[in-house]
Specification:
Blueprint lengths: L24 H10 L6 H8 L11 E2 L7 E2 L8 E4 L9 E7 L8 H13 L3 E5 L3 E4 L5 E10 L5 E11 L2 E9 L2 H6 L1 H10 L1 E2 L9 H34 L12 H19 L4 E7 L9 E12 L4 E6 L6 E5 L3 E13 L2 E4 L1 E4 L9 E2 L4 E2 L2 E4 L2 E2 L11 E2 L1 E6 L10 H4 L4 E8 L12 E6 H5 L1 E7 L3 E9 L5 E7 L10 E4 L1 E3 L2 E6 L2 E5 L1
Parallel strand pairs: 11-19, 11-20, 23-32
Antiparallel strand pairs: 1-10, 2-3, 3-4, 4-9, 5-7, 6-7, 7-8, 8-9, 11-14, 12-13, 12-15, 15-16, 15-18, 17-20, 21-22, 23-26, 24-25, 24-27, 27-28, 27-29, 28-32, 30-31
Helix pairs in contact: 1-2, 2-3
Length: about 525
Amino acid sequence: MQRKYDTGDKHGGQNLIANVRAAGYEIGMKFGKSLLRPWLWGGLMLLSAGVCLAEEFEIIQYTPPAGWKAAERPGQAGLVLTSPDSTATQQALILVLLTPPQEGLDLTASFEAAVKGVISNGKLVESTDAVATKTRQGFDAVSRTLVIQNAGEERVFARMIAAKVENRMAGIYYLTTTQELYDLHQADMAAMLQSIRFSATGTPLAANGEIEALEAQKQDLLKKVAAIEAKQRQLGAVATAGAPAAAGAAAESPDQVLARAKAQYAKEAGTRRKPHTVLGDILMLDGKPIPNAAAYRVTVWGTTIAGEKTQYGLEVDQNGHYEQQVPDGLYKIEGKCIVTYGGVRVPVDLVWLDDKKVGVVQASDVGIVRDFRLVMNGLKPGEDPKGDNSYFGGVVDIHGPDYDLHAGNLITRYPGSKVQFTFTALGPLVDGSRLDPMTLDMDGAYASSHGTFRSIPLGAYRVSATLIDKNGGRKLLQCKPSYGNEYSDSVDILWQSFKDDPERRGNPSIYIKD
């Protein structure tokens, strides 16, 4: 539901929140004590200077991110939302500001003035170029991401977006005190941006309502197409295992699709290359945007021709594309992606399409093109098949039954045995594909203590375990997901980010008992 200035309390839209005007000491004290870095006071106060009165601010409608808290300042305008996990020292916040009308407003100049206001008492250490775009309603907009640092090495990570609405500048600014918080709440910022609508009388597109309706229809059709394609992939997999595929063509394996993507990249990279620019796409194997992407991170680091070591964080748009000019030099490029799946965040695996090895630098004077594709499983390029971290996909840790002083462990009780695990997907995998139930065997010696399965396509599974003795006898084993849980006939598993390291994926565990 869209709302205006909804603070989550009984006053609803009657109370306006977050006084971010520069007219008083109180706002400086508020930010200084609880929000962001004290040295950023001046920038925040400059940002808030001259914002409109509450009644004018109703031009902006939005849906606040779930759980974010608002500071309430009745009668004054501007919006400040803080994330539910913000503390006295680590914060993430979203500011929404609206300037008074200005005849012939220059959006670019006003936006750059706002950026300088934020930098204010700090130093700009990383930044993208300002990117011009359009809002869903057709208003001119501009965006930029930056990292600001003070003399004490404290940093603020910011994403600033502004739109020109009836000769006013509407600013939506996302600021955090750490890279981890920035990545963690990018999806909240994206959701809020998607919800924002400007109730302006002079919308640049007369057919605004019709355009939004068509956009909704398009998104609905895209979802249906994705469902149909997932079903086709499923039917294609069945066909290759038995009868011929429907049109006489067998479905391609993921390896074949990846090989085709690499060939296409090699063919087109030269024509896409732009001098002094790093660019590329982070997509699915089939070249479509990654569904439910919550956060991207593209890092470019290296040495300029002047011998200066430098690093950039590049912004990735909703279609998975990134592009930025950089000083001439030698650079490495790393891409990461986190998706929202099953109500949690899951870091996914990306493979680059060029033939460059890990650690190889590229010259930016002629331009660098590096594309990434989401991969579900398989051996990483150039890795040793015996290596613990040589595979894409999920890892599952298996913990054997408790050791018995008299009967020993599982393998001594059942010599020559193995344990067969059945993985049944509980729905589409993180890439939207479907997987038939699969069985994986583990030697009893490994299952007795601590074994692992690698290269499991990321998704949600129900797993059961069966002991198979040396004579072929079968016995259902009991399972649980952690040491303190109760055992049952099966266990549900799902991968997700570590709380203290959102870009690192934790391994689910399965404890078994005979």
